[in-house]
Design brief:
Elements lengths: L10 E12 L2 E12 L3 E5 L6 H9 L6 E6 L2 E2 L10 E4 L11 H7 L12 H11 L15 H13 L5 E5 L7 H18 L2 E6 L2 H7 L2 E6 L2 E6 L1 H6 L4 H6 L4 E11 L2 E6 L2 E6 L9 E6 L5 E3 L11 E10 L4 E7 L2 E7 L6 E5 L6 E6 L5
Parallel strand pairs: 3-8, 3-9, 6-7, 7-8
Antiparallel strand pairs: 1-2, 1-4, 4-5, 9-10, 11-12, 11-14, 12-13, 14-20, 15-19, 16-17, 16-19, 17-18
Helix pairs in contact: 2-4, 3-4, 4-5
The structure holds adenosine-5'-triphosphate.
The site of adenosine-5'-triphosphate has 12 residues, from strand 2 and helix 1.
Length: 366
């Protein structure tokens, strides 16, 4: 899981201790982040966690309550948006309806010359090609699909050749299928230009699909910043474990330790998990197991039989290639994914190495 761009790529953008308060509300709480040149970096989190305010702060639309923002090592904290060399696309940053597509893109050149010494017309042609709308420059926005309109908005933001592209939920007005298509196109445009991009979304699946790195935000600050794989496989907090993808979170006390293997008491059950971190007997551990790593079988015991316990099927959602089944397990609900329909009582188990610890609490034991 090599980071892209490489770890020695220069830092394009840096936030140091950035805070933004509105009266009593702290929208952004002491955020420090560094984004590399050419990186596709996503801020993801639930509504109100401060994603948009962070992005607006980077763009220069907010006066910070504290902290510093640097572009390529230069302090831009007090610099207004037009002095920052950023292109911004907002969720409902509508195109001008009575201008053609070409005129809309050219509007991005109103206050800046195109890069590379080309004419405005040449730049518009280049951008139409980039967003795959060659020959559609004379259309008006209402003759385009929602996805095409957002690509034009991106082209308008890119017209002056900014160093950094900022995208705030650019797909949220589109239906699911269009979003999936557009996110591939956005990713393609980004990698073709190699432009440093900060992307805001509340959609965790979109964040995983599109990004080089993801910052999962909660209550004004990132809880974890890592590659999509790392975030999914090794969430560092319970919040990240539950926000990104489906997960089953367990809490239990360590009863015994043998090398990497811990035996835990989870409710009335005894479960074995493999540890990647230091724990002591008596610690309370929070760990998670992804639904795809829970094995279910009717009656005979779950595959290898490890950590096998009984549960009963509560409900099932047919999702096409899999079915997401909600199980009633002693003390909590569990989610599993299975290709087969399930009902009644089942045996559910998981391999000890598929458990991932998100928190260790020593207070109970000390
Ligand atoms: P969403 O996904 O719903 O857009 P978000 O993660 O982008 O949410 P922000 O819009 O950054 O969150 O808002 C963070 C917090 O700051 C919220 O509690 C919000 O109500 C508050 N907030 C944002 N803008 C303002 C403002 N102009 N005045 C007062 N409070 C604000």
């Amino acid at each position: 899981d090599q980071p892209r761009p490489s770890a020695d790529a220069p830092i394009a953008l840096e936030l140091e201790g950035v805070s933004k308060r509105y009266g009593e509300t702290t929208a952004v709480d002491d955020v420090s982040l560094a984004v590399r040149e050419g990186e596709f970096f996503t801020l993801v989190g639930p509504s109100g966690c401060g994603k948009t305010t962070t992005l607006r702060s980077i763009a220069g639309f907010e006066t910070l309550s504290g902290g510093t923002i640097r572009f390529g090592g230069t302090d831009v904290t007090g610099v207004p948006p037009e002095g920052r060399d950023v292109g911004v696309v907002f969720q409902n940053y509508a195109l001008f309806p009575h201008m053609t597509v070409a005129e809309n893109i050219a509007y991005g050149l109103k206050f800046a010359d195109p890069p590379g010494g080309v004419s405005d017309d040449q730049r518009v042609t280049e951008l139409l090609e980039l967003i795959d709308l060659e020959g559609m420059g004379d259309r008006e926005p209402d003759q385009l699909s929602g996805g095409q309109q957002q690509r034009v908005a991106i082209a308008r933001a890119l017209a002056p050749g900014p160093d950094v592209l900022l995208l705030d939920e650019p797909m949220s007005a589109l239906d699911a299928r269009l979003r999936e298509r557009l996110r591939l196109q956005v990713k393609e445009i980004q990698s073709e230009l190699g432009i440093t991009t900060i992307y805001v979304t509340h959609d965790q699946e979109e964040a995983l699909a599109i990004s080089d790195r993801v910052a999962v935000m909660n209550a004004g600050a990132p809880e974890q910043v890592a590659t999509p794989r790392e975030i999914y496989r090794r969430p560092e907090t319970r919040f990240v474990a539950e926000f990104i993808g489906d997960n089953n979170v367990f809490e239990g006390a360590v009863r015994s330790l043998e090398g990497e293997r811990a035996t835990l008491e989870v409710g009335a059950e005894t479960l074995a998990i493999d540890l990647e971190c230091e724990v002591e007997t008596g610690d309370t551990i929070t760990f998670c197991v992804r639904p795809e790593n829970l094995q279910v079988g009717a009656g005979r015991g779950a595959s290898s039989g490890e950590n096998a316990t009984t549960a009963s099927v509560e409900s099932a959602e047919f999702l096409g290639e899999t079915t997401r089944v909600h199980l009633e397990w002693p003390g909590q609900e569990l989610l599993v994914r299975t290709p087969d329909p399930l009902s009644g009582d089942v045996v559910v188990g998981f391999a000890p190495e598929d458990a991932h610890v998100v928190a260790v609490d020593r207070t109970a034991s000390s």
